[in-house]
Predict the 3D structure of the following.
Amino acid sequence: MATSNGAVLVELKNVAQRYGRGEKRFTAIEHINLTIREGEFVALLGPSGCGKSTLLRIITGLSRPSEGEVRYRGAPLNGVNPYATIVFQSFALFPWLTVEGNVAVAMRARGMPAEQAHARAVELIDLVGLDGFEQAYPRELSGGMRQKVGIARALAANPELLCLDEPFSALDVLSAETLRGEVLELWTGGQLQIRAVLMVSHNIEEAIFMADRIVVMDKGPGRIIAEVPVTLPHPRDRKSDAFVALTDRVYGILMGQTQPEHVEFGTEPGQAGRTRALPAAEVTELAGLLEHVNNTPTERDDIYQLAEELGLDFNNLQALIEAAELLGFARVETGDLIITPLGETFADASILARKEIFASRLRRLPFFRWMLRMLEASGERSLRREVLLTALERDFPPDEAEQQLDIASKWGRYAELFGYDDAQGRFFLEEIATPA
Amino acid sequence: MTTPTRRGFTPTPPDRPWFTMADGIILLVVVGLLALGIWIAEAAPAEVRGPEISLSISALPFYALHSVGRMAAAYALSFVFTLIYGYIAAYNQRAERVLMPLLDVLQSVPILSFLPVVLLSLTAILPEGIAVELASIILIFTSQVWNLTFAWYQSLTTVPRELREASGVFRFTRWRRLTTLELPFGALALIWNSMMSWAGGWFFLMAAEIFTLGARDFRLPGLGAYLQTAANEENLAAIGYGIATLIIVIVLLDQLVWRPLLVWADRFKLEMVESDNPPQSWFYDLLQRAALKDAVAGVLAPPGRAFDRLMDRVLPLPHSVSAGSNSGFGVGWLFLAGTVAAALAGAVLGGRLLLQVPLDRWIDIGFGVGATFLRVVAALIIALLWTVPLGVYIGTQPRAAAALQPIVQIVASIPATALFPVLVLALLAAPGGLNIAAVLLMLLGTQWYLLFNVIAGAAAIPQDLRYTTDLLQLSGWQRWRTLILPALFPYLITGMITASGGAWNASIVAEYVVFGGQAYQSIGIGAQITSATADGDYPRLLAATLAMVITVVAINRLVWRRLYRLAENVYRME
């Protein structure tokens, strides 16, 4: 079904979504141009925070973009798209309705008479393989079965465009794998009304396994950086050379190349230029990653392999690699992670020596230079959390500003650059005020 | 343990100044409402004679029915008000800015202050019988409605985002969204708060059925009037019968209405795990087994569907999926304009009345606030002293809980105002009698909130932490300081917020008593309000009420809100 010559279903032109105003204005996604045609299975792939869910909500009409045009079958989209449905990551089932009730409600809401809705619901429940569970409540079902209800409910709305919002990421590995196959079967079987599928994912393998085309997004701000067609025939073999080559290629696109230091670092908060967001990496996990790569004979590792070996989720791995790059512990080249001499020293060092290396690297980052200067400039060499947060909100949306400060707080405390008193909500410089 | 821990209190978002412009406007609106009532009240008839209240036992079932009917009418009013008010506040940002602070102030207004104003203004415009009945219902309404509205608003604004989006994607009309998503999601909070509302209603019913104001004597046949009359005549047997009837009514309502409702509503829990010990009700099981149930359901289904179709048209597809968006901005502007107009009227009408209050009256009011404050603090401290040890004991010993829980629940269900005559009788002769009685009444009315919260808090202490303290061989005070008190803290704060609000409100009944035909009063803001009412001194009534509202709001925001935030941030167990 990998034809992309079908009629155009969805068309996005120069779409952007911005929140807030004035100094705190920030852009979730921008310059989005995207076309989805009949017969296509499109995957939206990208790291968390790249705005793929925002984009999905714009396409379904749940939210309206602040700029640009959204068309469905040529007509501008106004309000929720009646031809689209969503299968949600958290299933979004109504816990107080039975399986049948959850499926039927989608049809009853569209005015279908009760008896007819009941009959169709039973059919759909049968189709997803849940017959016998019609009268069960969602809380009695396993995650995989709940998502089947979610799928049956989405089908009940008789959609042309089926949207899947990370549908398998809340499931255990086995259920997710089974369900992927079943969704593909429903889609390639072709007996449904569905004209196209749009799936949001942060799992590269899953996207390549299922989609005909992968739209790769990156963050800061969210934008499309590549479109990769997948022409492998179904059923796809994950071990095949073509599959692996494609996986490497997509990893390469997503991880990019390590840039020169001044580009990687960005500017200080509050100054012109782009402030580099700190990746949400745990120091202990970063050390673990470096130790692992350091122990491979070649001292470099295929990133796709790494994800498998360490059993890491892609988002998590990406944050770790970003942190390693930012701190100068590793470089990324053509889908490989290469450890630097500094990274090796760090991996081999004792606990105290690690802290020193970490501290010396942090002092070079504009984010920490700015924080330390702010702390030194204040009279008591300490600052309330809110003060830093307010300053950061000029560069980041409120939620992310908070997250950035949390990461900075963890890294800085690990490196003993500064301390943080949780009860008072104050950052302070260590030499002067030591906590009791 | 099924005690709810999230009661009516909602702390407003952090990092907001404790008193804003909006609060000032809202306060003026309240002053305006009171002043308007007073203005109308001046046209009330000068003399009214109420019906005789019989103290015979045979009259009790009749009185009980009347009281329950009144409560039910007030509750129905509260429920409808709640649905509409909460819905508008949740879906319209502009209206929300007025409605939520208004609710916050209104719930701090001493309810009994309202009574003379409501009663007299209604008798001025309606026939006497209807006016008295209506006034009593309105008074009970004001004691039931606020926590219910807060709970509904809070549940509307916390519906999980993906469920909301599902309702949008599947094209639910507003009606279907209300019945399929919002009401089920809020059902448990609404039921728990309804139970609290009924408890609050009983408390004030005792004072809302009988009311003397100079030559005006308003009476309604009911349990409250019965108990008051019995107290006035110092008829101890009648007081006993009255209290017994009250307890029977409350227990019956619990068994036949609230328990079954709770069992039924267990399905509306959002948690995706089965509960370990779901609530039980013999009456619910009986209804489930009844063959009649299916027949009734069968008959009701077709008209139910027709009604759904009708309501789908009345409340059609929403413009926006999320709460807090600005749909239907006309309503919002209307609210803002109305509020500003009401505030202006309040400033003029209220200002004129307040200017008539002489300076030494204001000084009295100031002393009154101070004295009542001390009483409230005393009541809270006494309540803490006995509820914490007992609550921890019940909460940590499942066997004790099973035995004591029903007893505690029944004792707690007796409205303190019903016991008050007995207390006064016992204590009036003692030195400082009314002072002690006042503190005791506040205690009676509020200690249960604390006890239930302590039990819930103690039961929620994770087993692992208890083992750890055992392993560390912490005992006695060490154990309390490191484990029990910090774990209880959020629950204590929640309980104390409700308790302190209740205690302030109770001061109106507690500090000024008519017993055996004679009035006794102590220094306090509650006594000021009641005596101003008895003297028909409206300017002083308004001044004293206002002083109390401002004090309670200030304490809530300056003390409780901070402690609540501390509890949320530092002492939450997760």
